[in-house]
Amino acid sequence: MGIEKAPSTEKQDSPSASKDVVHLEAAGQEDEAARADELARGGKSERKVKLKIDLFILPLLASIYFLAQMGRSDLGNAKVAGLDEDLNLTPDMYANVAAIFYVGYLIFQLPGTLLLRKIGPANQFSAAMIGWGVVTVCTVKASTYGHMMAVRFLVGVTEAFIQGSILYLSFWYRYNELATRGAIVYSTSALAGSFNGILSYGVQRDLGGKNGWTAWQWIFFVEGLIPIIWAFAVLALLPPTPEKVRFGFSEAEKKQIVTRSRASHNTGDGTIRPKLIIKLLLDPKFWMTTAINCGNHFCSNALQNFIPALLHESMGYTELQAQLMSVIVYAVTFVGILISCYASDRLRLRGVVIMFDSALACVGLILLLTITNNAGRFVAACITTAGVYPIVVICLTWTATNHPGYTYRASAAALINVFSQAVAIAGNKSYNDPPYYRTGLGASLGMVAMCGVVAGYLDWHLKRLNAKKRREQHTPEAEALRQMSIDEIGNKHPDFFFKY
C-alpha cells in the first residue's frame, strides 16, 4: 500500500513511517488496508484499544512525572519552611542551589532519552525514581551550601532519565491524540506543586521539630521516600513498547497497537544513528522550536522555585498561608494545561495555541510588574502560570510530530530540553532581588513574548514547506528519496508533511 497523497485542500498530511510502510509486501496489503480503514473510521475496536492504552499507560506515567515534579519543586517549599535561614543561604546562594539541578539534568538528558528503547521504559524510569528518591532522603543530612549544591545536582542527574515521557507517548499515540495525553502527564506538574503546598503545610505545622528534625528536613524525607516505594509498581506494570506488550491485550489488539504506532512513523527500530544528530542540529526548524521552549522554560522553571517565595515575600502571606495559596495557583495551572492542549489536539493547531498562551502569560507578567495590590498580584500569578505551563507540552508535542524516525525524534526531544534547561539556569539566577523579583519577572516577560513571535513565524514557515513538497511530489528527486526509509531521512521524506 503506497501513501495516498493528500489533496492540496488538506492542511496537514500523514505519510508512511518507513520504507517498510511505504512499500508493503503484497501479501500483507489487504490486512493492513483493512486495519488502516478501521482506524480512519474510528471504529469500536479502535476506541477500545485506545482506552486500554490510556488506562495502562497514563496513570503510571503521570505518577512518575508527578513525583519527579515534587522532587524538583520541593526546594521552594523547603525555603519557606526555613531552609535558607538554617543553612545561611543568601538570595544568590539559593538561586545557585535552584539552578544546579539543571546542570545535572541537561548533561544526562540526551543519553537518558536515546537509550529509552535500549534500556526499556519500565527499567529506566523505575531506576531513576529510586535514584532521586535516595538522594532526596539524603538531603536531610545537608548542613552547608556545598551539601545542597551536591544533592540538587544529583537529583537533576537522576530525573534526566524520566524526561523521555513525550517520546514514550509518541510510541503509542497518533499525532492528533498526543498533546492531550502529554497534557494529562505534564499537568501533574501543577498538581505536584499543589500537593507540595498541602504536604509542606501539614509537615510544617505538625512535624517541625519532631525527632530533632526541622520542617524542611521532614519535607525532603517524606518526598524522597514516596518515589522509592512507587518505583517497584512502575517496574512491574508499565508496558514497554508497542512491539513488546506483555499482558493486558489480545493478539488482535497487539497488532492494532503496532498499526497505530506505525501511523505515527514509529518503525520499532531503536538503532541510534549519530550522524543524524548532526543533521538535526543543522535544521533551522529544530532551532525555532528550541527557541520557543527556551523562552518558556526561562519563566516556568524559575516560577516553580519562586512561587511560594513570591506569595510570602511580596504579597504579605505568612509562611503557612503561602504554602496553601500556592495550591490555588497550581490548580489554575492544571486547568490551563488541560484546556490548551485539548484545544490544540481538537483544532490540530500548535503554533496558534502557543501564540495565545504566550499572550496570556505576558498579560500576567505585566500585571505582576506593575501592580502592588496583593489580591491583584495573586490573580496575576495565576494568569501567568496558566499561560506559561501549557507551552511546554505543546512545544514538545510539536517537536515529536515534526521529527519522525527514532534517532531524529529521540535526539530532538532530548536536545530541545538540554538547551532549554541551560536557559532555565539563567532564569533561576535572574530571580535574585526579593521581595518583588522584578529583574526575573521582567526578563521572563521578554522571553515569553519571544515564544509567541517565533511560534507565529514557524507556523507560517511550515505551511510554506508543505506547499513546496506538494509541488515537488512527482519530481525525480522525490522518487529517489522515496527509496529511503523515514528513519534515514526523517522529515525530508517527500510524503511527510509538517504539522503546524
Describe this structure in words.
This protein is mostly helical. It has one domain: Up-down Bundle (Growth Hormone, Chain: A). Helix content is 76%, strand content 0%. The chain is built from 23 helices and no strands. The radius of gyration is 23 Å and the shape is globular.
List the helices and strands and how they pair.
Blueprint: H1 19-22, H2 29-41, H3 44-80, H4 83-86, H5 91-107, H6 109-114, H7 116-119, H8 121-138, H9 145-159, H10 165-172, H11 175-186, H12 188-206, H13 215-237, H14 251-263, H15 274-281, H16 284-314, H17 319-347, H18 351-370, H19 374-401, H20 406-430, H21 438-471, H22 476-481, H23 486-489
Helix pairs in contact: 3-8, 3-11, 3-12, 3-13, 3-16, 5-9, 5-20, 8-9, 8-13, 10-11, 11-17, 11-19, 12-13, 12-17, 15-20, 16-17, 16-19, 16-20, 16-21, 17-19, 18-19, 18-21, 19-20, 20-21
Question: Main attributes?
Answer:
Growth Hormone, Chain: A; about 500 residues; disordered N terminus; mainly alpha
SS strand fraction: under 5%
Query: How would a crystallographer describe the biggest sheet?
Result: none
Calculate Rg over CA atoms.
23 Å
Query: Residue share in helices?
Result: over 70%
CATH homology superfamily = MFS general substrate transporter like domains
| CATH architecture identity | Up-down Bundle
Provide the succession of SSEs: HHHHHHHHHHHHHHHHHHHHHHH
Q: How many angstroms separate the termini? A: 26 Å
- CATH topology tier name: Growth Hormone, Chain: A
Number of helices: 23
Number of domains: 1
What is the 3D shape?
Answer: globular
CATH class division: Mainly Alpha
User: Can you count the beta strands?
Assistant: 0
**Low-pLDDT runs:** 1-41
Mean pLDDT: 84
Structural class: mainly alpha
Oligomer: single chain
